[in-house]
Amino acid sequence: MEIFHEILNVVVEAAILLFEYIGVSIIILSGICGVIQYIRKDPFTRLKLAKGMAMGLEFKLGSEILRTVVVREFSEILIVGSIILLRAALTFLIHWEIKGEEEVAEKKEEAKK
What's 73's DSSP letter? Predict the structure, then answer.
């Protein structure tokens, strides 16, 4: 039975690292694209940047949820739970910003017509 526990730990740790790297990569690429779009004066820069950040944070949140599988002590559960709450709050705020930016973009498109 101990071998199954070790296999689970290895798989979960690998998945956590994979999700962390994917999330960080998406955030970095979104930031670089955001700078390029800002220089080009793209009116949808904020919207595109917010969507990229939200996607990156979703992967980071997924890694934290996986981290709860391997937590051993109550203090670790509190720390991981706090991180999950913080990232969930950030994701919520970014999605709220996206919704606002999409409404502004729709109004701009309607005004052009």
Answer: S
